[in-house]
Amino acid sequence: MLEWLGIDPDTPRDKLSEATYFACMKILAESMGKLPLKMYQTTEKGIMKSDKTELFQVFKLRPNPYMTSTVFWSTVEMNRNHHGNAYVWKRYEGAKLKDLWIMPSEEVSTVIDDYGLLGTKDKMWYKYTDRKTGKTYTFNSDEVMHFKTSMTFDGITGMPVKDILKSTMEGNLESQKFMNNLYKTGLTGKAVLEYTGDLDKDAKDRLVKGFEEFANGSKNAGKIIPVPLGMKLVPLNIKLTDSQFFELKKYSALQIAAAFGIKPNQINDYEKSSYASAEAQNLSFYVDTLLYPLKQYEEEITYKSLSSQLINQGYFFKFNVNVILRADIKSQMEALAKGVNNAIYTPNEARSYLDLPSEEGGDILMTNGNYIPINKVGEQYQKGGVN
């Protein structure tokens, strides 16, 4: 599964087993995957949908034979957050873009050619070493789309979130192991065994093992523990509330979520939720968390995938964020009605927003006939009125 997601399979499993960390990566990956990527062109009449369908289809439907667009961009985002950098190789057939491939982040390194040994001086190259074959491949920077986290000190490579949160994550992992062991022992804590006499190490181990067989695990919950004559088993009470275990665990979880830009309510912490609606909640998530990586994606895809000629002609890529900012049906209909009545949308544009077919005569802008140009306001009160 990790290989399918593009995550290094040698990654220690405990790094991914931290629930909050994995949940945050899941939220960001799925958020990126659910946003449709659009291609537009800026023209004299405004922004229009692109007519370069052949190029657009690679990004929109099937970047490569094994991945849909949804899975592809989710995988890129997963690599970007977990490794700090995500690399996408663009494969061409002549001048035509054939498909896109995600390179394992841990096997890619950046090289800046200070002396021009590979061609142009100071140009960036990407070196990929295939761990299975041992072969090394070098790619021109124009062949690779590079997406990085916001945590970068040189602007070239990003830092993984897990490195920033190393100490916090280690503490959370240890607390999870503690809880797992507590469940395994049937939520019973440590106990002191009092006995008279002297036992060697092997005898002690056998004695302790015997007690554990009767006391540990959920299957022994509520059962009687046999204690040999002359011995006494004294349990040590472990109160998690005294050590504020759950409070500390919750605080650590919030720290991890904050590093990813994830809101507390998105990890099921509704204690201090202050959003008036789901729409406001999604808007906050978009502005505070998704806007930066989305802007980076759009700039990198446009610059690396389109020729200078197409860019000069006004072509660009943009993610459609309306899918996460849509309001409830009532608010949505009211907004569309206002847009149509005030000549912002044509009726067919509003219908298209609702995935409804166009109707004849629906491509005309309409507005209230009582409106007048702003530079003529007040003329109606002059003698004779407005001509």
Mean pLDDT, all residues = 78
Give the total of beta strands. Answer: 11
Number of helices: 13
Q: What is the first-to-last residue Cα distance?
A: 74 Å
Extract low-pLDDT stretches. 4-14
- Global morphology: flat
Rounded to an integer, what's the Rg over CA atoms? 31 Å
Query: β content, as a range?
Result: 15-25%
Biggest sheet strand order reads 2-1-11
| Sequence of secondary-structure elements | HHEEHHEEEEEEHHEHEHHHEHHH
Q: The biggest beta sheet, please?
A: 3 strands, antiparallel
Helical proportion, percent range:
25-40%
Summing up helix and strand content along with how strands pair, one would put the structural category as alpha+beta
Task: Write a concise synopsis of the structure shown.
40% of the residues lie in helices and 17% in strands.
Architecture overview:
- It contains 13 helices and eleven strands.
- The protein is α+β, with helices and mostly antiparallel strands.
- A three-stranded antiparallel β-sheet has the order 2-1-11.
- The termini are far apart.
Features:
13 helices; 17% strand; 387 residues; 40% helix; 3-stranded antiparallel β-sheet; alpha+beta
Question: What's the topology here?
Answer:
Blueprint: H1 13-17, H2 19-33, E1 37-43, E2 46-49, H3 53-60, H4 69-83, E3 85-93, E4 96-103, E5 108-113, E6 123-129, E7 136-140, E8 144-148, H5 161-164, H6 166-184, E9 191-194, H7 201-215, E10 232-235, H8 245-260, H9 278-305, H10 308-312, E11 315-319, H11 322-325, H12 329-341, H13 347-353
